[in-house]
Design goal:
The protein is α+β, with helices and mostly antiparallel strands. The chain is built from 17 helices and ten strands. The chain has one domain: Cytochrome P450 (Cytochrome p450, Orthogonal Bundle). A hairpin with a 2-residue loop joins β2 and β3.
């Protein structure tokens, strides 16, 4: 049986970020369902690129638990991507009873968010963002619209002041990047989250941080902070990239652009199409099998990292032609099984409301550069633009 003695694909390079789908295709042709990769120089993992295999793994937390503590013993403490893959006392990086306790607190904290109220919050924040650049006739859609709208919205839901929210947003983006400053960024992130917890202890409100603090699971201070890593992480960076990636797709793909402009394709359907083709978390859903596992003619070794390529699995040829996936909701962008994202509905409401507002306000918005000149941020996990320049006819500010 094949235990992957061959060369590994590096997933941290600018070349991989520029065209990951070509890499996935080559991986699948050469290795089948399980591919040997490097997430960082010297940090090895197995990447799952087969949809059926991924679904089985995601729904088998016994053979594929998400707790990395045994694996982590062999990883240098200063590894830049450790903040993204290492143990945290939260629902994402735990298993068994621990996972059940943390997930219950997360789900209940988010359950207090009324989606109709959330939509109004996004609409207001989107108009504010548009008003800051609409008279110029040009903008960086990612950094001037998607990022501030999502951060302001999540901050509203968390009851976080602008200063604390700004620290959380900047440090969270650096952690996702997995670069040389990720460790320092994680320190900044945790300090900001602890500040927010103390603020909400002193001044509780109708927000998910207050609900976490008051939850019957009686989370400790460090546990509270780690839950917020998950909630802010799922809410900010992936949602921002969902909005920007969908905007790019609307502007650069003829069938999506024409469908949206004619009304035959809704923004929600365009979002689902984008989640199939370029999910914001392209490679994640980590697990660490405690025993060797045989899949087909391949072996996954014990206590080794397994990464699900959500992007590659969504585009598995076994699922049929891309045209059949248009508007299809059966994607893995929010994972599946016991670790499926509890904030999926919130993320979709935020993304749809933000895109609806900006497309209505700036109906002639178009890319300011050719699509093949957009730059993607390197990193093994996310599918994230560095910027998205757009142009449009200058217009008067919207009423708030």
């Amino acid at each position: 049986m094949n235990t992957h003695p061959c060369r590994r694909y590096p997933m941290y390079t600018p070349e991989f970020a520029a065209d990951p789908h070509a890499a996935y295709q080559k991986m699948r042709q050469e290795h089948g369902a399980l591919v040997p990769v490097e997430l960082y120089p010297g940090l090895e993992a197995t990447l799952v690129v087969n949809h059926n295999t991924a679904v089985k793994i995601l729904n088998d937390p016994v053979r594929f638990p998400a707790d990395p503590r045994v694996w982590q013993r062999s990883v240098p403490a200063d590894c830049p991507i450790l903040p993204m893959v290492g143990y945290r006392a939260n629902a994402l990086r735990s298993a068994g009873r621990e996972h059940a306790r943390f997930r219950a607190s997360n789900v209940d904290a988010l359950a207090g968010v009324a989606l109709h109220r959330l939509e109004r919050v996004v609409q207001r924040r989107a108009r504010q963002a548009v008003n800051r650049f609409c008279e110029k006739g040009e903008a960086d859609f990612l950094n001037e619209f998607a990022k501030p709208v999502v951060l302001a919205t999540i901050s509203d839901l968390a009851g976080a002041p602008d200063e604390v929210a700004g620290r959380i947003g900047m440090s969270m983006a650096a952690v996702f990047e997995g670069g040389p400053d990720a460790g320092l960024a994680n320190d900044v992130l945790m300090a900001a989250l602890h500040d927010l917890i103390e603020l909400k202890r002193a001044r509780p409100g109708d927000d998910f941080v207050t609900r976490l603090i008051a939850h019957e699971t009686e989370l400790t201070g460090p546990e509270l902070a780690q839950q917020l890593v998950t909630l802010f992480g799922a809410g900010y960076e992936p949602t921002t990239n969902t909005i920007a990636n969908t905007a790019l797709r609307i502007q650069s793909s003829a069938h999506v652009r024409d469908g949206v402009s004619r009304g035959s394709l809704s923004v929600r359907e365009a979002l689902f199409e984008g989640l199939f083709n370029d999910p914001p978390m392209a490679n994640y859903c980590l697990s660490y099998p405690p025993q060797p596992v045989v899949i087909g003619d391949q072996v996954l070794l014990a206590d080794q990292m397994v990464v699900i390529s959500l992007a590659a699995c969504n585009n598995d040829p076994a699922l049929g032609s891309p045209e059949r996936r248009l508007g299809n909701r059966a994607h893995l962008a929010f994972s599946a099984g016991p670790h499926a994202c509890p904030a999926a509905d919130m993320s979709m409401v935020i993304a749809k409301a933000a895109l609806d507002e900006v497309l209505e306000a700036l109906p002639d918005m178009q890319l300011a550069i050719p699509p093949d000149q957009v730059r993607w941020r390197p990193g093994p996990f996310h599918r994230a633009l560095a910027s998205l320049p757009v142009s449009f006819a200058p217009t008067a500010p919207l009423p708030n």
